[in-house]
Amino acid sequence: MYITSKHVGYMFTTITSKPGRAAVSRPPIIASWVLMDMWHHLDTPDQDHQIGALQHKIYPSHSYHSMSLELYHTTHNAGQTTVVLIHGALVSGLYWDLVIPHLPKSYHLLVPDLPGHGKSQSTPFSIDLASHMIAQLIRAHAITGSAHIIGHSLGAQVAIRLASTDPDVVNSIFISGFGMFPRTSITPYIPYAAWAMSRVENCLARPLISWAMDGADIPHIDTDLCTLDLCRQIVAPEEPTEWPVPWPARTLIVAAGKGGLIPTKDSSRDAVKLVEIGRELNDETVAYTHLGMRHPWNRQAPRLFAETAEAWFERMELPGGFVKL
Length: 325
What we know:
Blueprint: H1 2-9, E1 23-24, H2 30-41, E2 62-64, E3 73-76, E4 81-86, E5 107-112, H3 127-141, E6 147-152, H4 154-165, E7 170-176, E8 181-182, H5 190-201, H6 206-212, H7 228-235, E9 250-256, H8 268-278, E10 286-290, H9 297-300, H10 302-313, E11 322-324
Parallel strand pairs: 4-5, 4-6, 6-7, 7-9, 9-10
Antiparallel strand pairs: 1-8, 2-3, 3-5, 10-11
């Protein structure tokens, strides 16, 4: 759906945005990467499977779900250091299946499905509710009552909100794909495009997508879970996402740097602004880009993604290829 979504994206090039407006976050389905990338720049000088339908069969895990009182989540490993992995929009915790095997076995992993997603679908999504429920999850299940946090795309927004509102449960943070997007007159229509294009995208052969995305393993979207209501809650929320307030946790912010014909690079400008906010309370917070990585680099280079997380959490030198912003 690269061509289709890019053509639709051109509809937005006549819209002008104004600084200071509230913003919404980027859903990470391929179609929406293209749509949102064009929208954002208005303000700038394995085998086929379905997310949400897979069961974890590759490595041992345990699942917990208590009605709507707790997010559905899986756990992995019996380590003494808890790490929470927060996925992006319109997928589920299963999106981490390529990264998990490369993380140290000494890490006790909590992998939730965000509200409105996967097996937490019955709970409506909002950034505030998601961060609140993850804080509850950490207090209930983290080994020491706190955790390191990994967040990708929409999950990066949730991670920063969590660190701002519940700093006691956050040790350090590694996020990638954070982006803020101006709210314009076309914002109410974006959910319809995201909903439709996720269905068109599923018609494309996975090998074609993998080739176009430098080897990224992009699974099918489960269209039963990718509802129009969920798209609205994410892309055009009633209370638009604002820039976060400063938070105290030491944070690594990564902006994927590879774009080109398929505009899947993250906003370095947003990463720089976010690091400025974060450094108000912790001068160890930093931002980097990697020119070889695309937005979904947890699916493109999962070993590198895991090694980057470990290096940050263990205060080691980052792997090669990263450039400081």
